[in-house]
Design goal:
This protein has 121 residues and is an alpha+beta fold. It contains three helices and six strands; from the N terminus they run ααββββββα. The protein has a five-stranded mixed beta barrel. The longest helix has 7 residues, at 12-18. The model is unreliable at 1-5 (pLDDT under 50).
Length: 121
């Protein structure tokens, strides 16, 4: 995908912060967690990330969870920097403790949350 029509008008993290109320409503879970590991499957353009949940804001989510992140547009972003913290909005997967992002980049790295002065509370 390329071209002006596919370009991100606003940072996906800023968009998530601005529309967090709507994302929270559409998500099954929202948590703050530490990225433990991640792998990328090039054949499906999917990143699989493992998090330790630090704080749950919505849904019954605790311990270690797996989040599927399809990188399908120019606005998609991958989870990066192991041991970093993220606020994640996700929907339930098919198996216990598995989740998927409801759309591209529905997460906010802690550094961006601080920069935007955003907090879920």
């Amino acid at each position: 995908m390329s071209g002006a029509a596919d370009a991100c008008v606003i940072s996906p993290f800023k968009r998530t912060a601005l529309y967090s109320d709507q994302l929270l409503e559409k998500s099954d879970v929202m948590f703050f967690g530490r990225l433990n590991s991640e792998v990328f499957d090039e054949s499906t353009s999917t990143q699989t990330a493992v998090f330790t949940v630090i704080k749950s804001y919505k849904g019954d989510v605790a311990g270690e969870v797996v989040v599927s992140n399809k990188l399908v547009s120019s606005c998609s972003r991958a989870f990066q920097v192991l041991q970093s913290a993220f606020y994640v909005f996700a929907i339930k997967g098919e198996r216990p403790n598995t989740y998927a992002l409801p759309r591209s980049a529905t997460f906010i790295p802690l550094g961006n949350a601080i920069e935007y002065e955003w907090s879920p509370e």
